[in-house]
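Illustration 12: Putative ABC transport system permease protein.
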Amino acid sequence: MNYTENIKEGFRSIKSNLLRTVLTAMIIAIGITALVGMLTAIEGIKYSVSSTFSTLGANSFDIEKKWEGRGSRGGKQNKVYPNITEFQAKRYKELMEGKARVSVATQISGATTVKAGSIKTNPNISVQGGDENFLANETYDLEAGRPFSSLEHQSGAPVAIIGPEVAKKLFPKQSAVGQNIVMLGRRFKVVGTIKDEGGGLGGGGSNRMIIIPLETATQIPTSQPLTFSIKSVITNNTSLAFVMDEATGIMRKLRQDPLGQEDSFEITRSDSVAKTLDDITGYVKSFGVLVGFITLLGASIGLMNIMMVSVTERTREIGIRKALGATIKQIRQQFLIEAIVICVLGGIAGIIFGVLMGNGISILIGQGEFIVPWLWMFVGMATCITVGLISGYYPAYKASKLDPIESLRYE
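Figure caption equivalent — predicted structure in token form:
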């Protein structure tokens, strides 16, 4: 009996014991669904977030005040670094002219209530002040309206660009452009709305944001002194590392950091965030593989038990085959191939369900496109065959060692 005949015999046995086969294949399908589904979801979420980061450009870096947090660590009081002042930020922008497109911003409040007539938002609106390069450097597109004019930036006019969630909340039945809002004790005129970036991990940072001119932001009283953040985007072929080194020197000079001491500010490359994301997803993938392995381990034990029951039920059939001349090797191959066929059928179903489930999760959480994870599909199918070999070997070995005379007497 060759491999083709064994495969045909496996399908005939599967057809004659359809319910048992379906239950066995479902055990394998659940394990493969868990493995492929989790890994597909991780790939989809990673693609979604990476796409968002890529819009920020791999040729940019941010400068912010170094922050170690309050309190102490290891018995040593954490150092409090001075804020980046408006003068330092604007002077840096002047010195970097021609080398990078620099934007200066400051967060006024991260928990603001905004009113328009009798309607008001929850106290979860972020208010940012930004200069003329802020929208371009942060890649915020406008859904309606216009950016701030040069005169509005210079004079500190009470104008605002609001996020889509704020616009829908305050102006559900009309355009927000041209309307007035009240926040932080002042009235602002809405001149534009930011394009919806979606929720979840894939975007949404600007949905509950309000942007006002930087000069206007510096005129609003705050409980604590403002600290300014700086974003630099390289618009020519200059080396990013070279510009970052130059930026570090300029900032150390502006902030008067003593020679030999650490920087009082942090410079973060945009692609370093993506690298951190790769590290995190690597750990999550390892966890996903572990969960899938545990699930498949349980599935392989279940498959082995069912194959043992199959051997017991077909003891007389095995005796007849041996009486007709079937060898030990042929009997072993027959049951091994049957186990592998069942695993492959379950694996195909598991891969389909896993890809659908994983993409569903990634689309629900982020904004990822539909991904076909060919690598994980191949890994899933290879795993199925391996599980079939491992789980089916002992039952096949036991079947091949049955005594034909005793098997023929079995009732």
